[in-house]
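quick one before i forget lol
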Amino acid sequence: MKPVLNRYATPFITGLFLVSLISGIALFFHWNSGWFHGMHEWLSMVLILPFALHLWKNWRPMTSYMRKPAFALAMVASLVMAAAFLVPALMPQQGGGRGGPPQFAAAQLLLGGSLSEVAALAHVPTDQLADGLAQAGFTVDTEDESLAAIAKAADRSEGEILAALVSVAR
């Protein structure tokens, strides 16, 4: 097992790092994101195993690195850079929203709206919207009920009621 470990840990780290590097650059610049998103996520997860094997193989030299100030500085700098992204994401957004892409915020507004409000936005009569949702398997009790509440009562996802809404409003 050890010869296999010694032979393949570093080459796999190198190969998977290059895949992660290229797919990460493509995602950053929004080049064919559909091609690279799954690849980047999954192969970055696969990278964990060769990384762990590489650490195991090189543990003695790593402990030498860990004693030096440069290692501590690099770790602190990495945490600070990660925090620069994480802290704003954890902070409550102005207006009480959770942040994220605007299309998600718009979907949350729709889900919180009553059936009559959403019907007015979609330029569809409320009874037509209620009938369309009923045909899709949702039970509408009142016009004042939110789409999220209707989906929850039907034990269905918010995505399913939004999909039904789109098909009714067409």
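fyi The mean pLDDT is 88.
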